[in-house]
Every structure is written in C-alpha cells, then in structure tokens.
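Dear Dr. V.,

Thank you for agreeing to look over these. As mentioned in my earlier message, I'm a first-year student in the group and I'm still getting used to reading structure tokens, so any feedback on how I've presented them would be very welcome. I ran two proteins. I've put each sequence directly above its structure. The first is here:
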Amino acid sequence: MPCDEGQKGMQVMNIILTGYRCTGKTAVGRLLAKMSGRPFFDTDELVCRRTGKTIAGIIADEGWMAFRKEEHAVIEEVCRLDGVVIAPGGGAILDPANVQCFKKNGWVIWLVASAETIRKRMENDASSRENRPPLSDKTIDEEVRESLAEREPLYRLNADMVVNTDTLDEKEAAAAIFYAMP
C-alpha cells in the first residue's frame, strides 16, 4: 500500500531514525525529541499498544506477516504527522512502502553499530530478549550478521545522515543529529 500524500502546505520535516535492533533508535530518539521539542514515536511501542500484545506475542499468535502489516499501518499513520521524531523497528526498512513513507516528509538517519556491538547490547538487554523474538533459529551472532548483510544496503541507500553509535553514546548521537538537522 503506498504512503498517503499527507497534509498539504507548509510542512516541518520528520526525523526518522533507522537501524538494526539495539543501535540506539529509541534512546537517541527520546533524547533528540526532548532537545528539539518534538513529539517522539517508537513504532514498535505503538504496534504493541494498538494490538495489546508484545511483538513476540503477535508473532507467536499470528506470524511475522501480521506484525509487518501492523507495523506498516503505524508507520503510515505517524509519517503523516509533521515535525516528529520516529523510531521504526529495524526491519521496517525491508518494506518499500515504509521507505516511501519515511522519505515523503522525513530526514532519515541511519544509526549504525558493528555486529559485535549489537550482539553485546542484545545479550545485555532483557526487554529485547523478552519482547522481540529471534528472526531465525540461528545463534544471535549468525542472525545479526546475516540480517545486517541483508539490511545494510537498504539503510545506506535511504540514509540522509549516518551516525555511528559504536563510538557515540546516546547523548552524543542525539546532539550530532540535532546540530545537523535541516
């Protein structure tokens, strides 16, 4: 489903934070929203609120396709807003319709981290383990490396800015984005 045109007239660009799980999208997004006085939306949180289930629950009950359908509906909705910070799930970039929504009225920032950093963060993040199911039956290391190999070209292609969260903490990453905002 294509992204709707959204509101006409003067628009304030949205800030879209893309990247793999545990690259800092939510933490950086919350700080950036506070710094810039913008509302913040985490699409995974919105999907969970809308469905009354965790992501793991949606996938266990209905499968990945049902989750991706809900995710797209939420992305389409929040991308119609102006002047907000949006943190979509790491896999949202795989759907060209989501990317179309991001680019329609958004400045896309790719938060990048190494596979090793992501794996360590995932192992240390209890909420990640409880709420987000594995993408496959492979080890975390194999899954992260394979998923990054698939997604990195899409993140790169659609990024207006790249911020490496291997070398910056959340505050530094948010400040780098804030001072570069159009």
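The second protein is here, in the same arrangement:
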Amino acid sequence: MESTPAPSAPAATAGNLYADLSAYYDGFCNEVNYAEQGDFVARAFACLAETSGRDYLDLACGTGQLLGLMHNKGFVVTGLDNSRQMLDASALRCPSAALMLCDLATFDVDARFDLVSCFLYSIHYSHPVSALTETLRRTFRALKPGGVFIFDMVDKGGIGERDVITRLEQGDARFTFCSGWRYDGSSESMELQVAIRREDDAGVQDWKDHHPMTAISIEQVRTLMREAGFSITILERDFARLKEWDGKSHNVIMAGMKPHAGAE
C-alpha cells in the first residue's frame, strides 16, 4: 500500500542507545524535502487564506526545519513540540522563533496565527481520536479569522507495513534507522515501530521503541474539522503542486480555513 511514515523522533527514556535523538534527527530525515514543503505551505496559504497577516505556527516542529524556511519567507514563526531537546535544536536553527513546549492537544492560544501547519504525519500523534479532536478544536481557536491550518494524514484504509530505512554516518559510527506503521485493520490505534542500530569498531548496539498513533479515515477527519468550524479543502499529498484530492489516494493534505464571523 502507498502510505509511508516519515522518520519521527521517539522520546528519550532511561536506557536509550543515546539520551538525545535530536542530535541525529536531521540525518534521519535527510530525504525529506523541507524546501519543497515550505514552498507548498506558502502557496497554499496564498491561495486559501483570507487574512493579511504572517503569523505562523508549526505543530510538532522538530528541529525547526520549516521554521527557518518560513522565517526566510517573511513569516513571524512559532514552533510547538513536546520535546525540550527538539526545541533546543529549533532555537539554534531559527533564533527568532518563539517556542512552545507542550502536546498538540493541550496548547492554549486565542486567535493569534494566520497559518498553522503539521507535517510528517505528526497529526496522528494526537491519540486517541478524542485527542485529535481536541487538537483540531484548539488549532481552530488559535487561528485568526481567515487563517488556515494545513496538515498531512493517511487514511486508515491505506496503512501498510512498508518500513522506511535511513542510513547515516556520524563520526566513526554508522546508524541505521527503521520506522514503520502496524495496524490491525479495525481499531482507532496504529503503532509506529522504531528501531535504531549503531555500529562502530567497538561493536553493534540496537534500540527499539514503539508509539501509539491514531488510525482514522479521511472522511472522519473531514467531519471532525467541519464540527470544529473549518471550511475544508482536501489536496493530494503532492508538495510539488496544489492538486485537489481525487477521492482515491490514501495520503492527503487537509487544509482548513477559519471563516470570518457571519460567513456561511
């Protein structure tokens, strides 16, 4: 099947292969075309937004790749992540960024942003569906009237067991990073399985972890967005162009605009 999870950083816990994965995260994501994503977000904002502001929030911002790119495009940028290490890396990459340490479903902002994004399928970290619902509600509240929320997702009907494998050399060590989704086909939960191998002259070390994520359909998300108040556009997950969803593919980009008061 077509769905493919991008690398995502697990939280550090006692006994990890290394305490801070953020130092390696950019290497694991070296196949992600952040520049193309940034261009896409700017184009989508220009086409879909009904606000003249440039205040931007990236949810699950990681090491701040998009923050730096959107800052260079003239946006006033804010990043949100639940990892202090990721936010520390974001601060180094984009010193002008405001940073928020919290979960997706708990941030509390009122009508501050013109544009909010959430990519690398990170919306699925809002688990279970009740948490994802709260994330959508809070994002709607955080937008100014006319502002836009843009995120990518995979329909639960297209979740396969294809793994993404990335290799990285850093210093004298060689790393192999493997991630993939597992889904039983019936529940509202899927699992992101992560495995890391470190090899050097001293030997081999392995580390594994897993993270629950929300399994949900495109139609369910569209309904939740509508209930939150969004005006919705669904696009193909093709960052090279703005193309309306054909109703067949499982990977899409959801774009929700917050209507002005009184708008139908």
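From my reading of the second output: Helices lie at 22-28, 34-48, 65-72, 84-93, 129-142, 218-228. Residues 6-20 have pLDDT under 50 and may be disordered. Does that match how you would interpret it?

Kind regards,
E.
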